[in-house]
Amino acid sequence: MQVSSAIFVLFLALTILLYYLLPKKWQWGLLLVASYCFYLSQGVQYIGFLLYTTVVTFVTGILLSRRAEREDAFVEAHRGDWNKEERKAFRAKEKKARFRILLAGLILGFGLLAVLKYTAFAATTVQSVLSWFGDAKIKIPSLLLPLGLSFYTFQSMGYLIDLYRKKSKAEKNFFKFALFVSFFPQIIQGPISRFGDLSEQLTKPHAFSRDDFCAGLFRVAYGFFKKLVVADTAMIGVRYLYAHTDTMRGVYVVLLIFLYSAEIYGDFTGGIDITLGVARMMGIRLAENFNRPFSSQSVKEYWRRWHITMGTWFTDYVFYPLSVSNGMQKFSTWSRKHLGNAVGKRLPVYFATIVTWFLTGLWHGAGWNFIVWGLLNCFAILFSQELMPLWNAFGKHFAKLSASKFFYCFRAARTFLLMGLFRSLDVYKDVPLTFSLWSSMVTRWNWGELFSASGLTSFGMSTWQIGVMLFGVLCIVIATNLGKKTPLWDRLATKPVLCVSLVACLVILILTLGSYGIGYDAADFIYGQF
Q1: Less CB within 10 Å around the terminal CB: N or C of the chain?
Q2: Would you call 381 exposed, middle or buried from its count of C-beta atoms within 10 A (0-12, 13-18, 19+)?
Q3: What are the start-end ranges of the H helices in 387-462?
């Protein structure tokens, strides 16, 4: 059952209808059944992996919780007997015990992800290295990769880390916890939710709210518009350019940057709009995952606006723990002593940043293109950080220019193009080929080909499809600017007549302009493959 299908719309309508017709105490149970039915529709063979992650995380969470409760009870019982140092020593000992439980849970959880997602990549890499020394034949395993595995694994492991840090309490009801892991609107492509933010919302009763329903309905329709009118139309050109890299060079690489930016933005933000809209229709608020990313003034700002929940996950659970770890503190002391304060204070931060972005790239996909993509983002951020004093000096010296709308647009365009350039690694995949295509943008000046009489349709898209895509992009730009301060769906929440009218217009546009139908190879959401 693809999310961008009529079957999903029928499934969603039935689920929401039953959600409000059933007694409120049964609502969360219905959501659990609906979530497992939805995931089963993706493939019966995947359900065992979801259950494995759920059981492992639930049991580990219970063990962590019980250990923490016994620790607190023991400290309370000896409050009058122990001094501060004795209490501190006991806490440290118990923390190590809880860490061992956490580590076991993380190994079991991330271990499944590592085996299923990265075994073939590791075997291929080893085979490539061995081939330098002669013939090397390694059997490359073909393993199942459950849909949404990266998302529900990260969400589950984040839950365990929060329990270890005592930032949340363990869920004692297995079925309620299973709902947190499997909640069907978000399981395929996020956002990556925190237990403390979502669990209570999923299990508490929800009365029908006209405002929430209207806001959610519009957002769902808007998400389908982004996906079917913009993303899947742009995908036609992206696929053609990818299939003809021998001739589609120079200006066509620039064209791919723009087309793929439209595709992935429409696809990913459209999918998130559907996810958040569906949840909102049932009175559940999920974390926002985007905040006008293409207006970002720098790469660092871009990653505060794009795929926000993933960025905060890596920041909270990888970067900060690594930065303040005992090993990193020792490395920092050694660096300052032997390399000077200026270099010494930077190295630990740089090391933690590089590790974080290496893992971020690897999370996106098992391939060198994703690793290189992650490291390019990392180096762009670090390079920009080093140039910050120059930027500040420039801003002071040219204060009027720096504050101008022109300079704002220039920086946004620069960031957009740079991120689009990095993002093309998603499409071309082969790293040497991608670098070769990048170089062709400055060595092969074939701009006239694109703007010739036949050039506008020389990359697999008809004039009609180009017009549809541009119209869709224009609609998104207008809607984004209208919702700059208050999102459009929130503004429509209290205006049901206008909301329903706009939803009807969106449905007509989707049916008229959307890329689907007989003979069309419809693509599901890109991030659903993770």
Answers
A1: N
A2: middle
A3: 388-397, 399-402, 405-428, 431-443, 447-450
Amino acid at 136: A
Choose among 215, 380, 373, 362: nearest CA to 285.
215
3-state secondary structure labels for all residues of 271-287: HHHHHHHHHHHCCCCCC
Q: Give the SS3 label for residue 459.
A: coil
Which residue would you say has higher pLDDT here, 209 or 143? 209
CA distance 351 to 69: 36
**455 has pLDDT over 80:** no
CA distances from 244 to 326, 368, 435, 445, 454 (A): 51, 21, 16, 18, 17
The per-residue pLDDT of the chain, averaged, comes to: 89
For the chain, which residues make up each domain, given as ranges? Answer: 6-205, 208-286+430-530, 297-427
Q: Which two tokens stand for residue 379?
A: 């180096």
Helices (H), 204-283: 210-225, 232-243, 251-281
Phi, psi for residue 168 in degrees, rounded to 5: -150, 165
Helix, strand, or coil (residue 306): strand
Better pLDDT: 80 or 505: 505
Instruction: Give residue-wise pLDDT tens across range 264-307.
Output: 999 999 999 999 999 999 999 999 999 999 999 999 999 999 99
Q: Which tokens go with 167?
A: 């930032």
Give CA separation, 527 vs 148, 264, 307, 434, in Å: 8, 9, 11, 21
CA gap 232, 236 in Å, rounded: 7
**pLDDT for residue 521:** 45
For residue 462, name the pLDDT band (cuts at 50, 70, 90): confident
Residue 519 clears pLDDT 80, i.e. is over it: no
Numbers of helices and strands, H then E, in the chain: 25, 0
Average pLDDT over residues 439-448: 85
Distance (Å, whole) CA 317 – CA 263: 30
Lookup: tokens for 132? 């330098």
Query: Count of CB atoms within 10 A of residue 76's CB?
Result: 9
Angle of helix 405-428 relative to helix 431-443, nearest 10 degrees?
140
Cβ atoms within 10 A of the Cβ of 390, count?
9
pLDDT tens profile 177-226 = 999 999 999 998 889 999 999 999 999 999 999 999 999 999 999 999 99
Amino acid at 226: K
Distance CA 299, CA 501 (A): 38
Beta strands in 305-412 (DSSP E): none
pLDDT tens digits, one per residue of 25-84: 999 999 999 999 999 998 888 999 999 999 999 999 999 999 988 888 888 888 878 888
